[in-house]
Amino acid sequence: MKAIVVTDQEAGPAGMTLTERSEPKAAGNDVLVEVHASGFTPGELEWPSTWVDRLGRDRTPSIPGHEVAGVVSALGYGTRGLSVGQRVFGLADWTRDGTLAQYVAIEARNLAPLPGDVDFTVGASLPISGLTAWQGLFVHGRFQQGQSVLVHGAAGGVGSMVTQLAGQAGAYVIGTGRAADREAAVGFGAQEFVDLDNDTLEDVGGIDLVFDVIGGDIGKRSAALVRPGGMLVTIAGPPETQPKDGLAVDFVVEADRAQLGEIVRRVREGRLRTNIGRVVNLDDAVSAFNSTERIKGKTVVRP
Ligand SMILES: NC(=O)c1ccc[n+]([C@@H]2O[C@H](COP(=O)([O-])OP(=O)(O)OC[C@H]3O[C@@H](n4cnc5c(N)ncnc54)[C@H](OP(=O)(O)O)[C@@H]3O)[C@@H](O)[C@H]2O)c1
């Protein structure tokens, strides 16, 4: 099968190569998925799980990409809950070969059924941004109706999902980003927008839940925006500054079939809009990931 592999951590996306690999086998509790669309997050190439397995052993050449939508083509021993020919989507394990390929072996529990009226491209764009937003707001952030939520990077992959989910759950949503992101953030449902290059972030205060996807200096300054008893939720690594009288939590997104079901239900009902920046073929994906063109939203790869 065709697959994109990486072998050199220092090289970044320039080290991605399209090559021939043998088809993976479905292990116990796995399904083999014929990939119809996949997603890739550039940060993956910096994560240890791309390079070593759980015991720290080198696993290169490894196949990146962990979001998939496709069709089950085989079942491993003991696999329950999915069947051959079924449309599925989900999040592949970080420490196994991923989805920038024609086939991927993946634990069945990491996948959910993809309804027939949801396109594979849309399905592949949902797992990371949708699950991260869901888990940050409702699991780690313990969001409650009526709270204020400040969403950094509200026009981006994760931020656009947080903005929509929070708004629909009854939040007052303040989005942030670059000046050019204002319209998109408001389009996703932000009631206010802070242009991080020209406005003063500190003018906004007393926030119940700050959702940080940026980190660094913005992350540090965000802790002070949290009201007493509030929460800073970050996906950009452990927070360097804690809210004075609040909590900070950082987390890594996990696969969850029930949450994927909730997310895709909202997409079908027209309540959740995915944020796809471009769609490319597997043959063109390496050059797309190395392009300097500024793309807003997810790059979805179709084999
Ligand atoms: N922990 C986890 O489980 C988890 C899960 C998903 C993602 N992540 C990480 O979270 C981050 C965001 O992911 P994403 O998919 O949402 O990325 P994305 O689509 O690039 O969105 C990030 C948004 O924030 C904006 N932004 C970044 N730095 C900014 C700054 N200094 N000032 C103003 N705006 C800024 C970006 O604008 P520009 O494009 O103009 O820079 C973009 O609109 C990535 O680092 C990703 O690796 C972590």
Question: Tally of extended strands?
Answer: 15
CATH topology of the largest domain: Quinone Oxidoreductase, Chain A, domain 1
In helices, the fraction of residues equals 10-25%
The number of domains is 2
Oligomer classification: single chain
**How much of the residues is beta strand, in percent?**
25-35%
Bound molecules: NADP nicotinamide-adenine-dinucleotide phosphate
CATH class membership of the largest domain = Alpha Beta
Distance between the termini: 10 Å
Overall mean pLDDT: 96
Number of helices, where a helix is a run of at least 4 consecutive DSSP H or I residues: 7
Low-confidence stretches at least 5 residues in length (pLDDT < 50)? none
Cα radius of gyration in angstroms? 19 Å
Please explain how this structure is put together.
- Helix 2 (127-140) packs across helix 3 (157-168).
- The longest helix is centred in the middle third of the chain and has 14 residues, at 127-140.
- The protein is globular.
- The protein has two domains: 2-126 and 274-302, Quinone Oxidoreductase, Chain A, domain 1 (Alpha-Beta Complex), CATH 3.90.180.10; 129-250, 3-Layer(aba) Sandwich (Rossmann fold).
- The chain is an alpha/beta fold and 303 residues long.
- The strands form three sheets. Strands 3, 4, 5, 6, 7, 14 and 15 form a seven-stranded mixed beta sheet that branches. Strands 10-9-8-11-12-13 form a six-stranded parallel beta sheet, sandwiched between helices.
- It has seven helices and 15 strands.
- The chain is 21% helix and 28% strand.
- Residues 41, 43, 128-129, 132, 153, 155-159, 177-178, 181, 196, 213-214, 218, 235-236, 252-253 line the site of NADP nicotinamide-adenine-dinucleotide phosphate.
- Pfam families: ADH_N (PF08240), ADH_zinc_N_2 (PF13602).
